[in-house]
Amino acid sequence: MKIRATTAGAGALLAALSLGCSGGRAPGAPPAPGAPLYLNPDAPLAERVEDLLGRMTLEEKASQTLYNAPALERLGIPAYNWWNEALHGVARAGIATVFPQAIGLAATWDVPHMHRVATAISDEARAKHHESLRKGQRGIYEGLTFWSPNINIFRDPRWGRGMETYGEDPYLTGELAVAFIRGMQGDDPTYLKTVATAKHYAVHSGPEPDRHAFDAVVGEAELREIYLPAFRASVVEGGAESVMCAYNRFRGDPACASPELLQEILREEWGFGGYVVSDCWAIMDFYTTHKVVASQAEAAAMALAAGTDLNCGVSFASLAEAVGRGLATEAQVDTALRRLLAARFRLGMFDPPERVPWAQIPYRVNDSPEHRALALETARKSMVLLKNEGGLLPLSREVGTLAVIGPNADDVEVLLGNYNGFPSDPVTPLRGIREKVSSRTRVLFARGGGLADELRALEPIPESALVPAGEGGAARGLEAEYFANPDREGEPFAIRTDATVDFQWWGDVPLAGLTPGAFSVRWTGTLLPPASGRYALGGRGLGHFRVFLRDSLVAEFSSEHEINTRWAEFDLEAGVGQPIRVEYRPRREFGAVQLSWAPPRAGPDAAALRAAEAADAVVLVLGLSPRLEGEEMRVEVPGFSGGDRVDLGLPAAQQRLLEAVVATGKPVVLVLLNGSALGLAWAAEHVPAILEAWYPGQAGGTALADVLFGDYNPAGRLPVTFYASADQLPPFGDYAMEGRTYRYFRGDPVFPFGHGLSYTTFAYGALEAPARVRAGEEVRIAVEVENTGSRAGEEVVQVYLTDADASGPTPIRSLQGFQRVFLRPGEGRRVTFTLTPRQLSLVTPAGERIVEPGWFEVSVGGKQPWFTGAADAATTGVALGRFQVVGEVVRLPR
User: Fold this and answer.
1) Is 629 a catalytic residue?
2) DSSP-derived secondary structure for 391-444
3) What is the mean pLDDT of residues 170-198?
4) 634 phi and psi, to 5 degrees?
5) Least confident of 73-87, 186-200, 559-573, 622-636
6) Closest Cα to residue 466, out of 454, 457, 453, 475?
7) What is the spatial distance between Cα 334 and Cα 315, in angstroms, rounded to a whole number?
8) Which three-class secondary structure state does DSSP give residue 727?
């Protein structure tokens, strides 16, 4: 049974609560005589929670453990939907500032900047929430509890959701996660700004098609050194209020029913005091795919007993039944609800808004000029210059003719990644380049085909190919009937001709008098193909969308979360009209709809090659797309499976385009937009300049142009290893780490973790480190770094540590510190680091964390130390040193 949230029939107290954070009294006034204790903001939090909890029936308590918690009208508790997303900007709630996808944020290697980004996101989150309350809206994606960040370790580049993470290293991930969480939750001693949720706990990184059934098998050392450190940092250092448990099993138990993960480690070892939320419908997996219990009530009881407090799904609707059957106790329900109510109180949901500092953030911060500037700065910081042979970059903006080629060159979707908001003014690479170059530069554009042979490159059907219903002659477009209801019922509210079907309505309406989210549209007319051949026909959008050709349904989607795309292929004749009908209704108050097609292919990249041959230089924009990689998705393209990847190369169509353009002999800059590492062995050998831009967010095109033409000196670093191919890796489903990531991979990568070039050069002095330290003490190291080039720029100073005398298996090297520093030409700076005993420790197979005596090798520089023996730090960019730990073995908390 799914409980539907409603506010219908609420009393005066509920109505007052719905207006903001305040309870049922005038702003600033003390509680009325006889008012319940839980409405007194001056009462201790624990007493307020107990007072409210004690007023509820078992059935009411159970209802509040569901993500779409209904209103309890008699108690004045408004409905609340716990589901919201903020991976790299407030997501799925209309216009918002869209920062680079999480993997791009990681590529900045900039902890203070991550905090700035998260602070901006939480500003917009608060502003959007209170604007929704003013409108009486309390639905999904309108609350203050965000299911971000994703801090799973990107252990294998084939995982489709790796784009949502901070990369393959536990230390980098943990540092960035702590900064993000603190920026989201704020620094007020009483009130949370928002709730951040560290996910997916734990040992979860694909394969996507198996995520509801597999059992992650890892040893104790790998668990403690790879899969748990970022979660520990999020809880112990970041103070995360929430943790989301994963779909998979861990050591036999579903992660959302694992006493070891949720009780022994999370609460007892780390002292976590917040609440645990299940991944969506994960508890249902207990009896449908994991098959550890036989029914919903048993699954709910199992999760509750282990420590899951909130259910994204429907299973906890059975908690009252589970108590009645003796599978669970009401005391267990009370424990979960105490944690949930405490979060709502700390968010200020029952207090006067003037008591809550975050409630005063004005709505104008959303998509503000300051946040747009921050998105641009972040996109610049995220870009990684992988190769720059012969100093091809930066390009001159006075170049005579520049060809911009590739399926990712002018596509807004690849700016956004997934779990994204919608920018008001996105800048694609093509637009960014056109706006940057001199007015004397001729810019030629050719798409050069689609992302893959099997994935047609859809574009809006132009006005010239559409004739309105009942019209003929020179009339163009489609007849549009707008209805003041979501089901196209009755007489139309208005009828007009729309030139094309390509609209976005973010809390807006196409016609005055309609209500956002409560209207629908039907477009009718005739499709006139300009040429004969095989067309792809369909559409993209958010909401419910159907396309009919000759009264036959050819494409349909109903998307509540992300922009969706559907299409089918047809053979059409030039000039032969085809009756076409489009039906659409938006998702709540947010709508996006586009009637699209891909015309017949004119030949193998003919237009692209003509553009390349006519140009003085080529910017080739290739890569992947959220249409190819992502969360549990259907992708029928060779090399991809269920959102994951089978191999690491570019799709075959793009590789052919790359080789053909390079064969023209023109200078080529390869720009990559993608969320995971690509196999670039051929490109690394044949292309002079390669720039990794990730999914760069709303300002991606502007940032890219700034880097290409030298207005910004790139300093991003890879948060993942770029292997030559998947043949270098162990099987994807194997969670053992040997042979994976820079820590355990013994082969030759194409571009290593931590790699990134600059338009200037840096040199390092000798490493300052103690000769020996006692076990259990901190180690302080320092190095002088100087900008020896002619341009100002940033260097990412990286510290890697190797335990040379470890008694058991340890990483080849591990990142244990980093700083991003800005230096002008000729400027030097002394950069210092402190290594804690925990950073010098190892975990034994038995699960003990110890610091052993012995020699440690340390490197400090702008990259990993890919050489051995003595070297000149000034020319290699890495300073090497050693120190000895002496004394007895020291045992640390795990």
Assistant:
1) yes
2) G-PSPPTT-SEEEEESTTTT-THHHH-SS--B-SS---HHHHHHHHS-TT-EEE
3) 98
4) -90, 115
5) 559-573
6) 475
7) 17
8) helix
Amino acid at 617: A
Catalytic residue among 169, 222, 225, 279: 279
Show the tokens assigned to 659: 């080789």
Average pLDDT of the residues in 860-886: 79
- CA nearest neighbour of 248 among 294, 288, 201, 287: 201
22 has a pLDDT exceeding 90: no
Cα 781 to Cα 777: distance, rounded to the nearest angstrom: 13
Distances from the Cα of 89 to the Cα of 140, 151, 364, 369, angstroms: 16, 16, 16, 15
**From 309, 502, 629, 777, active-site residue:** 629
Nearest Cα residue to 165 out of 101, 95, 232, 118? 101
What is residue 1's predicted lDDT score, i.e. its pLDDT? 26
Encoded tokens for 755: 């790699």
Looking at residue 6, its pLDDT comes to 28
The pLDDT of residue 159 is above 50 = yes
Tell me the pTM. 0.94
| 159 C-beta neighbours (distance < 10 Å), count | 24
**Mean pLDDT confidence for 120-124:** 98
Q: Which two structure tokens, joined as six digits, stand for 572?
A: 């059409």
Q: How confident is the model at residue 323 (pLDDT cuts 50, 70, 90)?
A: very high
Phi, psi of 693 (to 5 degrees): -115, -5
pLDDT at 582 over 60: yes
List Cβ<8 Å contacts ≥24 apart for 564-568: 564/540, 565/458, 565/538, 565/539, 565/540, 565/596, 565/627, 566/538, 566/539, 567/456, 567/458, 567/536, 567/537, 567/538, 567/539, 567/596, 567/597, 567/598, 568/536, 568/537, 568/538
DSSP string of 108-169, one letter each residue: T--HHHHHHHHHHHHHHHHHHHHHHHHTT---TT-SSEE---B------TT-GGGGGS--S-
H helix intervals, 202-329: 220-222, 229-236, 259, 285-288, 296-306, 319-324
Q: Give the SS3 label for residue 221.
A: helix
From CA 724, how far away is CA 466, in angstroms rounded?
47
Give the residue-averaged pLDDT of 574-582: 95
> What value does the mean pLDDT take over residues 641-656?
96
CA nearest neighbour of 594 among 688, 661, 521, 643:
521
In contact, 595 and 465? CB cutoff 8 Å: no
| 259-272 pLDDT tens trace | 999 999 999 999 99
Evaluate whether 456 touches 597 at the Cβ level (below 8 Å): no
Q: Summarize pLDDT for 674-729 with one digit per residue, the tens.
A: 999 999 999 999 999 999 999 999 999 999 999 999 999 999 999 999 999 999 99
Q: Is 279 a catalytic residue?
A: yes
Report the alpha-carbon distance of residue 883 to residue 894 in Å, rounded: 24
Helix (H) or strand (E) holding 623: strand 617-623
Distance in angstroms (rounded) separating the CA atoms of residues 226 and 142 = 34
- CA 533, CA 346: separation in Å to the nearest integer? 61
Whether 611 shows a pLDDT value over 60: the answer reads yes
Closest-CA residue to 863 (of 850, 879, 840): 879
Q: What is the distance between the alpha carbons of residues 877 and 192, in angstroms, rounded to a whole number?
A: 43
DSSP H/E element including 702: helix 700-708
At 454, the pLDDT band (50, 70, 90 cuts) reads confident
Max CA distance (Å), the chain: 93
Burial class (CB in 10 A: 0-12, 13-18, 19+), 4: exposed
Task: Label residue 330 exposed, middle or buried (CB < 10 Å: 0-12, 13-18, 19+).
Answer: middle
CB-based contact 79:790 (threshold 8 Å): no
Output the pLDDT for position 603: 57
Q: What are phi and psi of 891, to 5 degrees?
A: -100, 135
Burial of 603 (0-12, 13-18, 19+ CB in 10 A): exposed
